[in-house]
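Sequence only, no structure available. Ideas?
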Amino acid sequence: VSALTLERGTTFGRKTTYPRSTSGITYRGGTGFYAVADDGQSGEGGLYPYEIVLSADGKTVVSATTCTTNLSIKLSGTYDLEGVAYDAGSGNVWAADETRETIREYNPQTGAVVSEFAIPAILKNYNVGNYGMESLTISPDGLTLWTANEDTLEGDGPVSSRTKGGVVRLMRFTRPDGKMPWRFDR
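Reply:
I predicted one. Tokens follow.
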């Protein structure tokens, strides 16, 4: 699978479409994608279905549509959604909530929680402010899930600045098949 790259001068505008605070996106097949919005205070937080049509060479966005009103699928018990990953095996989505320090599986039609798994103590206990789980992805075979913190955890060194980077922990969760629960691997 090759990455989508937009050439210089390509624009993607969302003038009157929602959400205004997209923080994560995942491919769900065909032209379908899901995006999450992370702004719990504005009321725009939730899951948004997108349709994105690419050019024949797969390098240019021909059209992209989402809802034109704030009619997202509200994911139960979330506040600060940052990452989303589509689970092709179940048809559900996994979403990372940075503030609530959770990764939960949701039914994308209803927003109901299907399952949740434990976050490693290092991430929960040593997170500095609002710099927790910022990403989420599932491997194509559906057996590995990855997330990473946004900035340096307490004890890992100084937080990043405009001139110097920080330490980020890449965390892997695995399962023996698409029906088994995730377990922290490293």
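Helices lie at 121-125.
Hope that gets you unstuck.
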